[in-house]
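Bumping my old thread because nobody answered last time. Still need a sequence for this structure:
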């Protein structure tokens, strides 16, 4: 197949897991029934082979990416001065975490008797240790080399769902500050491995310009309920990990963001376990404040504390049920930051999910479920919902989006269909004046 596609066989990677070399025993094999034998009658053989293929229906389509030129997958670890590059790469993530007022966590977990697996990620202070880390690398140098900024964001909101929310008070950049000592990757790895020796895992947390170390411990087993396709409920027992020790609060941590208990989370029925509450998206709190962070994911970062305060609003429409739709002043419209970062508002996205921002957040628009309620409070509750520690992090890094003809060629080659939808909301109730695609409150 690689020959027919004109690619080097050793470069093939499954499209959803491009970091992992194709596994001949796994994705590429179909286990046959023990009764199969090459000397069986053809019809019997075909029957057994057909059944074996049908059993693989859980992955009916395997798509592989391949490159024309064979590349050495480990070349990034070598080079003239590979070690310093790795140190520089980890350093860039540390500095970005500092500028974003976040933690950078390097974690090693021991799985049974195997060598520990490594992962690097951004976190809001107070995030839970995730049940399943995203990705797994055999050692720290490989983890550093292979963790992109996007990888470090993976599942950011999910992981920080119950973290306490604070405003931020970042220090002003100090032009006379001494440069960071470059991170010694080997030394960091050795230290974390030592901590791992008699624990299920260990972390190094980059916070406030230095590494803090802690072991992980296993928490008592808890029960989780999952709804099956049949409508029945399955119970799973799971063991989670927690930090042995929490590093001191960072210097940039501002006062707590006020919150109230979510009114939608009352009761303790099974349903509540299965679907996150719509009102708070599982955070169990309604926040009366939020922190907006806009960044190009490199050097530029802007933090804005959105406190509950009176602000002039204008009514821009109404919902079909008659609820008013209001727009807040510019300070609350994330779309206005696009020009500052030299991107289009549509390019602003959530770095954790890669998705474009909601139109309501771009335009600073909210539907008032209580027409006499405070519009700013309603807006802050809406934007902080489902966000880790009420942090609204927005990436203004331009995206390398392929031009439409290239996308169309790929779609045709894969035998898929490309559907383009354009909606004109100019004449709808609640449309943002002058915007053909911006529709408020729907
Ligand atoms: Zn809730």
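Sorry it took so long. Here it is:
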């Amino acid at each position: 197949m690689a020959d027919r596609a004109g690619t080097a066989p050793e470069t093939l990677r499954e499209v959803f897991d491009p970091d992992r070399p194709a596994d001949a025993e796994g994705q590429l094999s179909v286990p046959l029934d023990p009764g199969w034998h090459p000397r069986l009658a053809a019809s019997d053989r075909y029957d057994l082979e057909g059944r074996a293929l049908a059993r693989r229906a859980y992955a009916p389509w395997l798509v592989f990416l391949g490159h024309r030129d064979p590349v050495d997958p480990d070349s990034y670890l070598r080079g003239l001065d590979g070690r310093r590059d790795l140190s520089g790469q980890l350093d860039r993530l540390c500095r970005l975490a500092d500028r974003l007022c976040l933690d950078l966590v390097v974690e090693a977990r021991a799985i049974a008797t195997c060598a520990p697996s490594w992962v690097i990620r951004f976190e809001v202070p107070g995030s839970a240790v995730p049940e399943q880390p995203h990705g797994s690398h055999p050692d720290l140098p490989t983890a550093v080399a292979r963790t992109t900024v996007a990888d470090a964001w993976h599942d950011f909101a999910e992981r920080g769902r119950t973290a306490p929310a604070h405003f931020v008070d970042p220090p002003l950049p100090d032009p006379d500050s001494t440069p960071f000592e470059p991170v010694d990757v080997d030394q960091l790895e050795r230290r974390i491995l030592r901590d791992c020796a008699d624990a299920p895992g260990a972390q190094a947390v980059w916070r406030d310009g230095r590494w803090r170390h802690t072991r992980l411990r296993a928490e008592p087993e808890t029960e989780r309920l999952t709804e099956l396709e049949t409508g029945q409920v399955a119970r799973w027992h799971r063991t989670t990990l927690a930090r042995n020790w929490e590093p001191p609060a960072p210097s940039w941590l501002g006062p707590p963001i006020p919150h109230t208990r979510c009114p939608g989370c009352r009761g303790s029925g099974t349903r509540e376990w299965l679907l996150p509450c719509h009102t708070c998206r599982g955070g169990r709190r309604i926040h009366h404040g939020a922190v907006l962070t806009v960044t190009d994911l490199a050097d530029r970062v802007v933090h804005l504390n959105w406190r509950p305060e009176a602000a002039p609003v204008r009514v821009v429409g109404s919902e079909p049920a008659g609820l008013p739709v209001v727009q807040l002043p510019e300070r609350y419209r994330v779309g206005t930051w696009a020009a500052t970062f030299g991107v289009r508002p549509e390019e602003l996205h959530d770095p954790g999910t890669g998705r474009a921002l909601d139109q309501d957040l771009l335009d600073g628009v909210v539907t008032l479920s209580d027409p006499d309620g405070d519009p700013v409070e309603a807006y802050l509750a809406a934007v902080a919902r489902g966000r880790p520690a009420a942090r609204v992090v927005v990436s203004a890094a331009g995206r390398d989006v392929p031009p439409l003809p290239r996308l169309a060629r790929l779609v045709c080659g894969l035998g898929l269909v490309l559907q383009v939808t354009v909606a004109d909301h100019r004449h709808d109730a609640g449309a943002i004046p002058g915007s053909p695609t911006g529709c408020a409150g729907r």
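Residues 19 and 163 are 30 Å apart (CA to CA). Let me know if any region looks off to you.
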